[in-house]
Amino acid sequence: VQVVESGGGLVQPGGSLRLSCAASGFAFSSHPMSWFRQAPGKEREWIAQIMSGGGTTFYSDSVKGRFTISRDNAKNTVYLQMNSLKPEDTAVYYCHAIVLTSWGQGTQVTVSS
Known about the structure:
The chain is an all-beta fold. It has no helices and ten strands. The strands form two sheets. It has a six-stranded mixed beta sheet, with no helix packed on it. Strands 1-3-8-7 form a four-stranded antiparallel beta sheet, with no helix packed on it.
């Protein structure tokens, strides 16, 4: 049972990135999936969730209107499209499902000019 995040990198303010999270070892299509992030010196923060069918999504106020969560149940993958990135979005990004007993390694996103 694991997830592997990818797609992070260095981007200028105002830029975009798309993160991916490949899941394995559990019934992916039956579970809501979430994205979290952790900035240096701060606690891990929930930012987005998508329900199992993909039709319902939720966002934190900090990313609403800029980030879009989506999923492809045929590929056991969840995505996070991040637009209009700001320096305060710099963090390690993690995907997670309640069925998981540990976190993935995350993917680093750095927003800087």
